[in-house]
Amino acid sequence: MAFTDLLDALGGVGRFQLIYTALLLLPCCLLACHNFLQNFTAAVPGHYCQGPANYTAAATNNSGAWLRATIPLDQLGAPEPCQRFMEPQWALLNPNTSIHGVATEGCKDGWVYDRSVFSSTIVMEWDLVCEARTLRDLAQSIYMAGVLVGAAIFGSLADRLGRKAPLVWSYLQLAVSGAATAYFRSFIAYCVFRFLMGMTFSGIILNSLSLVVEWMPTRGRTVAGVLLGFSFTLGQLILAGVAYLIRPWRWLQFAVSIPFLAFFLYSWWLPESSRWLLLHGKAQLAVQNLRKVATMNGRKEEGERLTQKVVSSYIQSEFTSARTSNSVLDLFRTPAIRKVTCCLMLVWFSNSMAYYGLAMDLQKFGLSVYVVQVLFGVIDIPAMLVATTTMIYVGRRATVASFLILAGLMVIANMFVPEDMQTLRTAQAALGKGCLASSFICVYLFTGELYPTEIRQMGMGFASVNARLGGLVAPLITTVGEFSAILPPVCFGATSILAGLAVCFLAETRNAPLVETIVAMERRVKEGLSRKDEEGKREEISLQQLGASPLIETI
């Protein structure tokens, strides 16, 4: 019998599973806020050069006229953001006058920012515009580098130390580093603490999903996994509302960080995964946790009858060949695991690259950044409802492949929409982003089901590393778009379609019990191949018999 049968005997999807899942998904809501936070804290407002110190706006009673005389206009008739006249050109106050070849210079005295939408951002505070504009993208890349490092570190630690310990630490680290980011006045300190915050993203999302999946019976895993996606979507909507109400970037940073201190405090109550405890020879603690689960689910008598021997009977066939020490090489050592790992590397990298390529620069759409953030969040809801339905009734493989391919087609189709049709371009991009978000959540669940418990967290951590590499590459591809506008959508769209095709080579896991060890995984694959060979032989024999019938009748 599988471990999931034991969970069914102790109440299935009961009160414990509902409360446990809710407490794990709540932090994931605010985690989404941190992922997209720089859309607001690093927003670039309208700006132009500050006038020289020896000139004052008092030279004219009309500040608009003063601006016209000191700042050249760009091709669209807006003030040039990075240049000013070396001397005021008063002749330009005459609407019929135009001048050419006038000497200009950079903004030596700083910039004047439009504070009508954003009262303060890191761009305003540290003048991350013009020659320093790349530092803004660097800050986001440093955050994504932290996510990458965190995926590598926490993925390995969770298989060695358990799921709970890295999760609890991640809550504390995010609360402290988030508050420190809002406190310190240095851009270098900002980048350092953003890096530490990025590390916690992987520690929280990977361990939360593993704990939810490992405490959930088979019939509840799909809904639980999709609820993680909805929590991430809700977090994007929360971010839009909080950012709209709290405009100063430091207070916004603090507001979305300090709640993790509360998550840290209540996370001590969360029990460790009994699957992991049994796998690492801690059967007594696993039995204690299972008894608590039984009590919360109204099955106290069944819980009291549990002993180490009884619990072991449910998982003995799976755990007898389990290894106590694993390395990343185990993801490539055996054929079945190697196939899963190679396919998932491409899927996670492509999904993340296209997702962050669309979602991390909302100002490019030319609409209100708050409206676009809400639109990008709301579109995930119907997309995930469709994903939930298809995962339950069709399967994981078809769902992930379909959403990835559809997203790729939407991104490529956006190339052919004229630039002046911003509303259509935004709506089409939002639809593509919704498909990518849905496939992202589906592949989180799919990955957790494909890897055995023995290396599940390591496998998810390694897959997440590839996703973070995609997140790092996305802004680089977007930057290249300044030289070739066609390159970013082609890259994002083509890789999404390629990833969708790669999913077709993975096994379906719908309604299948979780595999506990590498040996069990290989055995399941071999048994599946054996059945296919037998069916093929029977079909071949049948065809031979059908082919021989006319000859027999002729004889």
Report on the structure:
The protein is mainly α and 555 residues long. Helices cover 69% and strands 2% of the residues. The chain is built from 24 helices and four strands. The strands form two sheets. It has a two-stranded antiparallel sheet. Strands 2-3 form a two-stranded antiparallel sheet. Helix 2 (15-35) packs antiparallel against helix 8 and helix 17 packs parallel to helix 22. The chain is elongated. The model is unreliable at 57-61, 540-546 and 548-555 (pLDDT under 50).
Topology:
Layout: H1 3-9, H2 15-35, H3 38-41, E1 47-49, H4 63-70, E2 84-85, E3 104-105, E4 111-113, H5 122-126, H6 134-161, H7 164-183, H8 187-215, H9 218-245, H10 249-255, H11 259-266, H12 274-279, H13 283-296, H14 300-304, H15 308-319, H16 330-333, H17 335-359, H18 369-378, H19 380-393, H20 396-413, H21 422-450, H22 456-480, H23 487-503, H24 518-554
Helix pairs in contact: 2-8, 2-9, 6-8, 6-22, 7-8, 7-10, 7-11, 8-22, 9-18, 9-19, 9-21, 17-21, 17-22, 17-23, 18-21, 19-20, 19-21, 20-21, 20-23, 21-22, 22-23
Show unreliable segments.
57-61, 540-546, 548-555
Tell me, briefly, the overall form: elongated
Task: Provide the spatial order of strands within the biggest beta sheet.
Answer: 1-4
Strand content: under 5%
InterPro entries: MFS_dom, MFS_sugar_transport-like, MFS_trans_sf
Keywords: Membrane, Transmembrane, Transmembrane helix
Organism: Hipposideros armiger
Subcellular location: Endomembrane system
